[in-house]
């Protein structure tokens, strides 16, 4: 019987499961291996959730049924969705929150209608500043008594980007219930909190949205005890993951393939380098790309090792905007955006 990987459970109520990223070599993550990130219990969907409402600063408020949206010109893009807390477990000092390791990221083919097309049909007033997206999931935050829905906003310019889409297919199949059926917002280059699941209401506003998932969570707080110099979490950091070998593997002498993935929220990955001497010297890995502007880059490096002992493998990615993974991540008290140089320790016997 062929062995298969499983999701790694971080929490069951609400469900938070990590993708087995180290064992996935395909460009498109199968839906069953897509990581699961939830703030609240899964919503109870009814027929009304097959309708998508657009309201607020629009001259023609409308409800679009799923069949209406399916009849519109579609667009497909391949991109990763990464939780802002991916790799949180590696922060030093430790921070509170789901202790994600490397698997709070997955990549697939998303198909839907550009949000800009829907907003062409409703129109919008010139004073519009932001677009607010509301999912069907709701619950209580630990420090709140009232029930609240998951709501996030985008600046109008980002909402109108031609690749910001209302997705209804994942890998050419209807969205899985656990990942946002029937509608999920997909926002390229931003962390996953922006890609609201179970989307059923879109509201255009002429000021700044200040819901708890906008101005309290998903904010970088550089200081442990105050909010000084805080700023919002938006664009993906340049980052990479070593998929193989696994941490603390015991290997034989000979040739080993070091491989992984790299991604960025600005430009494209231009280089991945490997160090086997604790960062003193670096050697270039071989890159493999898809002809897709947002997709992650695969990389590999053949390691010829004859001397037994313990080794640290470092990997760092660079992007076309000149960003490079740092040796130490930017610490923040909620643990977002970890992107320090990837590191795996192995032993050669």
UniProtKB/TrEMBL annotation:
Q: What Pfam families does this protein's entry cite? A: Mo-co_dimer (PF03404), Oxidored_molyb (PF00174)
Obligatory cofactor(s)? Mo-molybdopterin
Q: Which residues cross the membrane?
A: none
Moybdenum cofactor oxidoreductase dimerisation domain residues: 233-347
Q: Which domain of life is it from?
A: Bacteria
Q: Oxidoreductase molybdopterin-binding domain: from which residue to which, for each copy? A: 39-211
Instruction: Report keywords, A-Z.
Output: Metal-binding, Molybdenum, Oxidoreductase
Q: What is this protein called?
A: Sulfite oxidase
The organism named in the record is Niallia oryzisoli
């Amino acid at each position: 019987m062929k062995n298969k990987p499983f999701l790694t459970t971080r929490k069951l109520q609400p469900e938070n499961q990590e993708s087995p990223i180290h064992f996935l070599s395909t460009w498109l993550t199968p839906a069953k291996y897509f990581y699961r990130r939830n703030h609240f219990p899964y919503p109870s969907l009814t027929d009304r959730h097959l309708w998508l409402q657009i309201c607020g600063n629009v001259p023609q408020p409308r409800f679009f049924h799923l069949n209406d949206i399916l009849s519109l010109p579609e667009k497909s893009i391949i991109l990763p969705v990464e939780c802002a807390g991916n790799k949180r477990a590696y922060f030093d000092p430790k921070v509170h929150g789901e202790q994600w390791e490397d698997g709070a990221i997955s990549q697939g083919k998303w198909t839907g209608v550009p949000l800009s097309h829907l907003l062409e049909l409703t129109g919008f007033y010139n004073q519009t500043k932001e677009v607010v997206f509301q999912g069907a999931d709701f619950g209580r935050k630990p420090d709140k008594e009232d029930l609240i829905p998951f709501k996030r906003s985008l600046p109008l310019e980002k909402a109108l980007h031609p690749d910001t889409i209302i997705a209804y297919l994942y890998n050419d199949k209807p969205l899985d219930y656990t990942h946002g059926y029937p509608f999920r917002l997909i926002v390229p280059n931003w962390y996953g909190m922006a890609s609201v699941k179970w989307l059923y209401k879109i509201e255009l506003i002429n000021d700044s949205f200040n819901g708890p998932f906008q101005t309290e969570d998903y904010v970088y707080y550089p200081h442990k005890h105050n909010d000084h110099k805080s700023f919002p979490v938006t664009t993906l950091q340049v980052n990479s993951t070593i998929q193989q070998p696994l941490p603390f593997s015991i290997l034989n002498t000979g040739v080993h393939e070091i491989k992984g993935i790299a991604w960025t929220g600005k430009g494209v990955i231009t280089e991945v380098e490997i160090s086997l001497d604790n960062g003193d010297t670096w050697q270039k890995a071989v890159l493999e790309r898809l002809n897709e502007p947002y997709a992650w880059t695969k990389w590999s490096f053949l390691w010829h090792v004859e001397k037994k002992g313990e080794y640290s493998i470092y990997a760092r990615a660079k992007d076309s905007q000149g960003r490079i993974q740092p040796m130490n991540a930017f610490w923040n008290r909620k643990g977002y955006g970890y992107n320090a140089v990837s590191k795996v320790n192995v032993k050669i016997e």
